[in-house]
Amino acid sequence: MKFLISMHINPAVLDALTDEEKAAIGDGHGKFIEALKKSGELITTQALVDPSQAAVVSVRNGQPVVTDGPFLESKEYLGGFYLIDCENKERAIELASQIPDTAIEGLGVEVRQVMFADGQLEA
Amino acid sequence: MTAPATEDLLRELTPQVLGALVRRHGQFEGCEDAVQEAVLAATVQWPAEGVPDNPRGWLVTVASRRLIDQMRSDHARRERESATATEVVPEDVPDTDDTLVLLFLCCHPTLTAASQTALTLRAVGGLTTAEIARAFLVPEATMAARISRAKQRVKAAGSSFSLPDGAEREERLRVVLHVLYLIFNEGYTASSGSELHRADLAHEAIRLARMVHAQLPEDGEVTGLLALMLLTDARREARTTAAGDLVPLDEQDRTKWDRGLIDEGIELVKASLAGPALGPYQLQAAIAATHADAATAAATDWPQVHALYLVLERIAPNPMVTLNRAIALAETEGPLAGLALLSTLDGDERMAGHHRLLSVRAHLLEKTGDTAGAYEHYRRAAKSTGGIAEQRYLESRASRVRT
User: Fold this and answer.
1) Cβ-based contacts of A86 with chain B (< 8 Å)
2) B309-403: what fold?
3) Does A119 touch chain B (CB under 8 A)?
4) Residue B61: what pLDDT?
5) What residues does each domain of chain B span?
6) CA–CA distance, B395 with B399 (Å, rounded to integer)
7) Tens digits of residue pLDDT in B197-210
8) pTM for the full model?
9) What is the ipTM of this complex?
């Protein structure tokens, strides 16, 4: 079963971390990725640029309108995701709990099953 | 793409060649890699140069060379002087069929279901890692890692290359059948992307079930599983519209059902029911055969379907079986009786918020005339399902009861 584990970050929370804490998050993700690759459960993982770089696109009267993002007025933003293929939801949750973000107050890690997939998955 | 005849031949030979290699050299892990490489070499060479006179011998020779090359490079540093290891000259492959032994290894109980299916498809089914990855819509690297991890686990478990005895054999065979069933379902319930490849999985599962059946013709559950697959696959054409929408059993165009598969399935069911003990696959196949026997949905022998579910519920209690029995009960004794049976599942944690419980309840509420309740439950079921085709279907039912 495929699941998207999305990481919702709060820039204010991240800024308040010490350098050691930031480095530990990076290490934790690195180890998590390695373990997922070895077990054959990782499809792909990607991290996104800062939300201030987002462009919000809409089309009105057939004309595209582009404004500065982010779209959501929120303290948290989608920072990145893991797309995994694993045994069941319990396993997906078990894996998600290994992500360092889960141990930090103010950062959100969410697990949702994939319903439709198409296209090349070679990342 | 390899010509279908070559491909079929390769898939048939894969477990035989792998079995011969493991018997000679041990080390399932290394042999499996070597056979995969030999099969890949054959898919390139045979279409160009013609199929060799003794294709099995050709594969054994090529795979043995690969294996020895691998062993040499593994030991090169430590044992340079003994690098003159004897070249293996393949004798005739023994007649013993190792398919079952290999299946038992690939479906080792220490593996997850995802690993069991992947390893089975490669080592016994003769599919390449790339093909398996495409079928499961994951990158090849992901599938390669999964297969490699699975082989390490099998090795760590210290399995011997032989059939287990007695009760263990019986238990392990159930795991094998379950894995084949999962492969079939993965192909049959395809709802996204490369549907062609996923349909192939259903055919592959049928082919593997036929192989097991040929080895164990007296085993009722093996026969039952093969029959269940054939009877289910017979409905493939009728179960979706050209647009890919699901068509429920009672609305399917039964002239689109594959009579050949149905006849074969029914014969197998009859044969298996004559045996001494009844198992879950036999009963599910008997239920599928009852549906297949009905010329129209209205002609369905619901009392028989209900009786079969009752037996199934007794020998393999499971909320999903009770759920299906509720549908049959609603047909024989009315929707209220079905709803009453469904309510016994409400406290079952395994069914809490399950889309099937919601959709069956919606269906039965619709039959009682409670359109508001039916609408509500179809909507909730649509939100809960993980399948996009099923979601579309449930949403269409919801809008149908509202108008």
Assistant:
1) 114
2) 1.25.40
3) yes
4) 94
5) 4-82, 309-403
6) 6
7) 566 899 999 999 99
8) 0.88
9) 0.84
